[in-house]
Prior knowledge:
Structural class: alpha+beta
Strand order of the largest sheet: 2-3-1-5-4
Low-confidence stretches: none
Number of helices: 4
Mean pLDDT: 78
CATH architecture of the domain at 5-41 and 90-176: 2-Layer Sandwich
CATH class of the domain at 5-41 and 90-176: Alpha Beta
Helix content: 25-40%
Shape: globular
Radius of gyration: 18 Å
Number of strands: 5
Order of helices and strands: HEHEEHEEH
CATH superfamily of the domain at 5-41 and 90-176: Ribosomal protein L5
Amino acid sequence: MKTARLEQVYKTVLKDKIQKEIGVANVMQVPKVTKIVLNIGVKDAVKDGKLLQSIRDVLTLIAGQSAVKTIAHKSIAGFKLREGVAIGVRVTLRNRKMYDFLDKLINVALPGVRDFQGVNAGFDGSGNFNLGITDWLVFPEVDYDKVDQSRGMNVTICTTAQTDREAFALLKAFNMPFKEGRAGQVKG
Length: 188
């Protein structure tokens, strides 16, 4: 099986660069991306259960892998939500599909965002990165004429980094377009 372009670049060029930048002695300590999770929550799914199927189809196109419906684990009366009702769609990407999606996200989707200024450094304190995309139409697989409404999604990039600083160095090496001046705000 052929390796993804971004994975090949990571193994041949970026791994040594990141090792020098974060100052680790062992090459096995260099952080890497382990998985990417795409998630769409749909509040209208409580009223219309068929809506989730069309959203699932679009997310499957974007990810290149079948998406699954997520269900509510507890009832919340204020949101008219009952336990066991499907309320969202998600997909977890690993290996080649993960690198293909990351390549598409960084080089195609994010530059296509209108008035794009860069992404905020949304790290969780454990080396994982969260990114909110407000419009899924930035992905080339989404056909504008076939979707009923523009939707947003959450992208979580999980890494083996021990600190946010290491994860920032990893994603910066992949050319993630962070906003200028955000490097100083990353903890760790």
